[in-house]
Write the structure tokens for this entry.
Amino acid sequence: MLGLLGGGQLGRMFAMAAHQMGYQVTVLDSDPDSPAGRIADQFICAEYTDRAALQRLGKQCAAITTEFENIPAAALAQLSEFCIVSPDAKSVSIAQNRISEKQFLQANNFSIASFAIIEQAGQFRNFTNSIAGLFPGILKVSQFGYDGKGQKHVNNEAELSTAFVEMKSVPCVLEKKVPLKCEVSVVLTRGGDGKMVCFPVVENQHMNGVLDISIVPARVSAETAKQALEIAGNVADTLNYRGVLCVEFFLLEDGQLVINEIAPRPHNSGHFSIDACITSQFEQQVRALCELPLGNTALHKPSVMVNLLGDLWQNGEPDWLLVLQQPSTKLHLYGKRAARPGRKMGHFTVLGETADQALTKALHIKRVIE
Ligand code: ADP
Ligand code: MG
């Protein structure tokens, strides 16, 4: 019995991979109708702060993982008294907070965009130069932001003050906007023995702060791809990380790679691996959790993943035949009941002879279902 904190789509795909390998899964989530909870062998409907519920989970599982980075560190620490918990409380607490994440990256000499920490109006930590050097910038809440939520673009101190109040004056970081050539990510798995296996570098296109399309392999130079894999591996080693980790990068116009953020779990940009790789990111999560050898992540073929957001449901359920009738295309729907705008409802993956060919096919399908 494997335990899973969080009942979202990442958890659902983890449970599917676990089932494929003969494991059972207990999901803990506060939503009684979550995508992973609905396919779990056992479901505990509780908050992550419910110590009695955590104890029940801990007692019945051989190992526990998470699909959600905002799990309180205390919950992971409590569970680790019962069984293996990966990733561990320390890695999750660093990654779940932009301030601690940036401080960790900076302290270990990883390249990141210039930033300041703002915990009180008008007071800037970690930044000695004039704050004017960070404009135009993006104000980001330090916790619970996702899919571009909890972010505001600001061009001067007046806009910054207004935006900070609009964020309810919670701790934030102000990050300088960097000139992007493109965005790439590396999803990797690190076992408890320190052995590491990476997926190929992914090129990501965002729309309104939400991942739209992932292209694999990324159309970047071999040198850039090698560097991204190396940096991501160093991040995982520095954290002494166990499990699946995603490192998101900005590739700047001058060719420099800077780390945007890290996610202590499988990542949306790794969904291509279900259909395009010998081993998916979710199977790797199971393998790392159960101390099994990590799988081969070689690509069957170049591929493109396209996210399906709730906006597509505006005029009712899209006509999935338009996706399913395409050769070398796979459809994934997460079983969410309500299709709200911006909500991740599913994705499809297209395989091609080259990344560009897969992209052309994917964009065609995207156009016809919209
Ligand atoms: P989230 O946690 O919502 O994914 P990110 O910090 O990754 O938040 O920001 C979402 C997207 O916004 C990024 O993938 C990128 O496209 C854009 N973005 C964020 N920060 C910057 C920046 N400093 N410069 C340029 N673009 C940025
Ligand atoms: Mg991001």
The chain has three domains: 2-85, 114-176, 180-369. The radius of gyration is 20 Å.
